[in-house]
Fold this protein.
Amino acid sequence: MSKKHKSHASHSPRQTLPRRALVTLQDAVWLAEKKDFDSAREKLEMLNRQFPHQPDVLYALLDVLYAQQDNAAYLVVCEELVGFEPDNPDLLLNLAGSYAGNVYPVSALTTFRQFAAKYPQHERAPDVRRSIAELEELLPTALRDTGLSEPHAEQAAMLHERSLALLAVGELKRARRVVDELLALKPEFIPALNNSSNLFFAEGDF
């Protein structure tokens, strides 16, 4: 998880939610400000189930997850927000740091590279370039330890890391799609075959 997480507590909600949901969102932000993170998270996760893909809800949830140091859940929410705001350097850097903190080195390297290419003059760019150099040095070992080789080793490793991230937070349907994509690319990749079997069991399809 990035140590430079930028709080969004003062972020003004956009009028994309019904009034009752906006009231619940404001209650959750108030609870978070009072450090009642468990109650705030309960309300925000309920909102996220009822009204998925709402950036205002996701930003508030991201702040709570950071406060709780829930690295796995923070990563998945950060991924979704980057999809909404691909030109937000703070989010992209948070995502790269979260990949690194969750020990997903290939995803971290790819995201740091994206940041360096997109924001070469950013104040954090020198730190990012150092991180890239360190991860590139580790990449051959990371791929070998995972059991992946060319062709498409880095792409497969990213899919594998993404499937693990989704499984870690119980996102079984999304994990199934990623695992299936990985097996289409690497049909004999043992960890993906194992994850596929575990998903069949969890889904009751066995």
